[in-house]
């Protein structure tokens, strides 16, 4: 399974994938290329350090950028597109080219069915937070549990079949920064587990999903 990893920033989730591959935790998986819409994304340095092909595609006109990204994915023969901290909304035209071949990591808990609420493992019903700034939103809404989700990408933003989730408890005194740091530690395991699940049973979601994580694990 060849991955195209799309990033916009620090690339710590990309690093988790690189490490898992180097430590033989993802047999049969390799990173074909890393694409960033930001020239100075630290994730590009991480990729170069591991001698991975990288591309910087500026996001001036979405259509042009998407065309370039799609050509690169084809040229580098990537089978799965991984949005790991990718901060741009992709058009329906683009996403339609990768049905069940593109996954997104989102720093909030999302339901299986596009509903507006999510029921946590302890039974509380929380809003499904979509879009940007959801870590801040979790704090503002005063919810007690949040987490991250990996799901297949469909044209609707932050919707689509869920591959896996990791829940975490929001502690009193958590700030957006402290909460995001804790989420990222979970995400680093989650993204690896989600890629593993897809590599073993593509497409992997719903009852076939085997990669839900929780803090206690
Ligand atoms: C992650 O928390 C991801 O959920 C969000 O952006 C962050 C990316 O972090 N969409 P990194 O670039 O992988 O370090």
Order of helices and strands: EHEHEHEHEEEHEEHE
Spatial order of strands in the largest sheet: 3-2-1-4-5-8-9-10
CATH hierarchy class name of the largest domain? Alpha Beta
For the biggest sheet, the summary is: 8 strands, mixed
| C-alpha Rg (nearest Å) | 16 Å
Number of helices: 6
* Fourth CATH level, the homologous superfamily of the largest domain: Formyl transferase, N-terminal domain
The total strand number stands at 10
In whole angstroms, the N-to-C terminal distance is: 27 Å
Overall 3D shape: globular
The assigned CATH architecture of the largest domain is 3-Layer(aba) Sandwich
Helix fraction by DSSP (H/I, runs of at least 4): 25-40%
Averaged pLDDT = 93
Tell me briefly what this model is.
This protein is of the alpha/beta class and 217 residues long.
Describe the structure.
The structure is a single chain. The longest helix is centred in the last third of the chain and has 25 residues. This protein is globular. Helix 1 packs across helix 6. The two termini are 27 Å apart. It folds into two domains: 98 residues, Formyl transferase, N-terminal domain (Rossmann fold), CATH 3.40.50; 104 residues, Formyl transferase, N-terminal domain (Rossmann fold, 3-Layer(aba) Sandwich). The chain is of the alpha/beta class. 32% of the residues lie in helices and 23% in strands. 5-O-phosphono-beta-D-ribofuranosylamine (GRF) binds next to helix 1, strand 5 and helix 6.
